[in-house]
Each structure stands twice: as structure tokens, then as C-alpha cells.
Amino acid sequence: MTTTYAVLGATGQQGGATARALLAAGVAVRALVRDPAAAAARTLAGAGADLVRADLTDQDSLRSAFSGVDGAFAMTTSFTPRGTEGETADGVRIADAARAAGLPHLVYSSVGGADRRTGIPHFESKRRVEEHIEGLDLAATFVRPVFFMENLSPTAEGGATILRLPLPADVPVQMVAVADIGRVAAAVLLDPSRVPGGAIEIAGDELTGAQAAEVLGGRYEALPVAVLDDPDLRAMFTWFVEARPAYQADFAATRALDPQVLDLAAWAAQRATA
């Protein structure tokens, strides 16, 4: 019998990384997408994935998409017009559909710190999804990634490279590449026993803003947190400063699941040659 895993949001960052990691492991992937005709979906199909239309707002379509597979990956986001309430509703709908379909195992990508009452809105919305999953008769693992390396966006100005963040230069932040989220999620889908506690916080590096800028070949400029219009992001960057340590990833466990895990220098080198 063919082992098949469903990946929700397979044309997105995390879903795409998970789908590619599963395909690289030689298993069948059911890529759940909104538009099978989209270019990103066709690329996945060309890599060997089976495209299936699924709608986050339609529990029946999700239940059908989760039926007959050996496990599934899912993530949610609050960065839509529906905000954190919409994110929680999506996560609850995903979990309920998975249970109704008799899904053997769900990997839910949450966020580092979701279990520590941070008060950050998009952390708390993901924790509410986790809590709903915990209340169901559903085998699940929570993968909790930290700050994405992809969110570091230096700018070129007058021949100089400048990294700006609303963060003091000496505050360390743990970070992870999206590709590593996918590789960890795939490893957990293939063998859930590798995360015996049912949850893992993952990271590939820990650097201050100044150190990150140096790795990226530039200089750092700290901005005041007040420059952020979004109160959710203001809360997160304030937490980085006040919690110390904020994220608490298990670096050794991350590497055990993903021996290819990237530090920032390796991530930047890959980006430069892509």
C-alpha cells in the first residue's frame, strides 16, 4: 500500500516546504490547494504531488481531503482580514475535519512560545487551536517554529547593506528557515514517535540584530517598536526584549529531526545562489 500524506496550504511557504520534504523522502503527497491551476500548484504536480482542491472555510471539503491518508500537515495564519478570530476558527475547522475523517496523525505548525501565555495575539490564537486539538480524540504533534529567517529583509542604500528591526542591537532572537520547518514537519509525519512529548519548539540559529546584520554583510540599525503600526507585531517585538529568553527552542532535537538544519550564514549562502 502507498503511504500518502496530505499537506494543507501546499503552495504556501510552510506547506510548500513540507510537501517538498515529503516528496524528497519518496512518499506520496496529496497537496491540498485552493486553485489547482495556479502556477505554484502546477509546479508541485510536476514534482509528483497529487493536487486536491480544499477550502479552509468548508469543513466537508477538508474532511474529504483528509480521508484515506496516513497523516496531514496544517498551519493557520492570523494575517488575513479575519484576524486572530479567523485563524482560530480555521484551526478548529481543520481539527474537526481531521477527526471526522479518522486522520491517523495531524502535524499542526504553531509558533514558539504558544504554550507560555505570551499575550501576543497571533500566538494566543494558535494556542487556542492547540487547545482544541488537545480536547479531541486525535493524535497530533505541534511543531512550534521561532522567528523566520525569511523575515530578515536588509536594504541596499548608497552602496551599504542595512538591516533594520524594531529591536535593540544586543537582544538575541532565535530564528529558523522555512525549509527547516518543512523538513521537521515531514520527519514528524513519517515517524511521530520522534517527538514523544507531542510538541517541539524548533530553531536553527540564535543571533542579535547586530550579529544577524554582520552575517548578512551589512550594518544594523535598531528602530523603536513604535514604528510598527500593527499592535500584534508590537507585542511580539516587546516580548523579545522583555522575556529574555523569549523563544526556547530545542536546538539538539531540531538537528536530530533535521540534520540539514540551516544557521543564518548557511541560509544566506543558499539564498545568494538560488
Automatic annotation (TrEMBL):
Keywords: NADP. Gene3D superfamilies: NAD(P)-binding Rossmann-like Domain, UDP-galactose 4-epimerase, domain 1. Pfam families: NmrA. Residues 2-218 form the NmrA-like domain. The keyword Disulfide bond does not apply. The keyword Protein biosynthesis does not apply. Belongs to the NmrA-type oxidoreductase family. This is NmrA/HSCARG family protein.
